[in-house]
Amino acid sequence: MSELIQLAFIAFIVENIVLTQFLGICPFIGVSRKRSSALGMGMAVVFVILISSILTWVIYHYVLAFFSITYMRTIVFILVIASLVQMVELFLKKISPALYKALGIYLPLITTNCAVLGVAIINIDKSHTFSETVVYSLFISLGFLFVMYIFSMIREKLDFSPVPKAFKGVPIALVVAAILALVFSRLGGIV
Amino acid sequence: MNQKENFLKGFVKENPLLVSMLGMCPSLAVTTRLENAIGMGIAVLFVLVLSNLLISLIMSHQKLGEWVKPVRIPVYIVVIATLVTMVDMLMNAFLPDIHKSLGMFIPLIVVNCIILGRAEAFASENKPLDSVVDGVSMALGFTFAIVVISVIREVLGNGTITVWGDVVLNMRFIFDFLNIQPIDMFVKPVGAFLTFGFLLAGVAAITNHRASKKVGKVAKS
Questions:
Q1: pLDDT for A30 beyond 90
Q2: How far is CA B151 from CA A31, A129, B12, B37, B162, in A?
Q3: Chain B: residue nearest A170 by CA?
Q4: Rounded to two decimals, what is the model's pTM?
Q5: Which helix (H) or strand (E) holds B167?
Q6: Is there a contact between A74 and B110 if contact means CB atoms under 8 Å apart?
Q7: Torsion over CA of B111, A178, B97 and B150, rounded to 10 degrees?
Q8: Assembly ipTM
């Protein structure tokens, strides 16, 4: 149990998906202008990463490994993720229109979010067990949500700050991300 | 647009990384050494040129194109994923060191926005030859940008330039001259964000300068 808690902490802070592993930078920069959209995107990512990593783990270990065609994993994983995103979209539309309204526009963007495929591959490469996969995927995606939310709050304030003309928009956002990454890299010393 | 313009646009005017800001994840993650940036460039070149060629061949065929159109995005993804699997295996066989240090960023080329973006924006509407030229141009533009980032990061962070394998240029004399140590921060994630941020700011500054010059000229005349 203590190992799982440690893994959760590592996934959440030390190996933060955006700031130390550089996955999911596109939505991190692109959809973080407003707090509400950052929250929506973050929640959609948590949802999809959790389901897709469980699904890809099961498919890898019980189908691909069984037929010993593990070299097909990139193709299979991306197809699983793409169709999963479509299914989640349809499902949400039917079951909970309110949630669909909040997450709907972010869902199609997630297919090309490298964090989703990245976490699926990390789970296989690090040979996580099933329970480790669940914990790792949950906390790494919560880490994404957390950093995304902090970043969007900073960017909302940044809109009213006197920024040099050349740095307006994405460049200053990247400099802020660098400072955040500095903070997170120091937090790594705790474990 | 003639062939030459088509070829040159990827470097400056429509540089995928510096202007369109596509494919940021690998360009921040693998640029700790020049060698990695070149390896990534080769992989992207291979995938982008072949995917542009194949997709353009599919979509310019009249009957097949019509049939594929409603499901084109899944078709693109399958084509790209197949090519990426090929490049993954080829690099594992012929460039094992680079394959190891690039790690999972090779399979992640599948979700690199540049490749799907060019497939949808260019290859699906243009002839095969033009699409190949476009692929070469975009891939070289991307490689150029990540080479710049990796050289800055490696020199500042480690004092070396690892061109390929054992060919390492030693730039320590700069630090000896200034009597300081290399700034370790630049090979860490912090340096990636910082370098890329300043590079983009530089590009924006040049663009702004040019735009204001143009406005001035128009006002004078």
A1: no
A2: 30, 39, 19, 9, 9
A3: B197
A4: 0.87
A5: strand B167-170
A6: yes
A7: 100
A8: 0.84
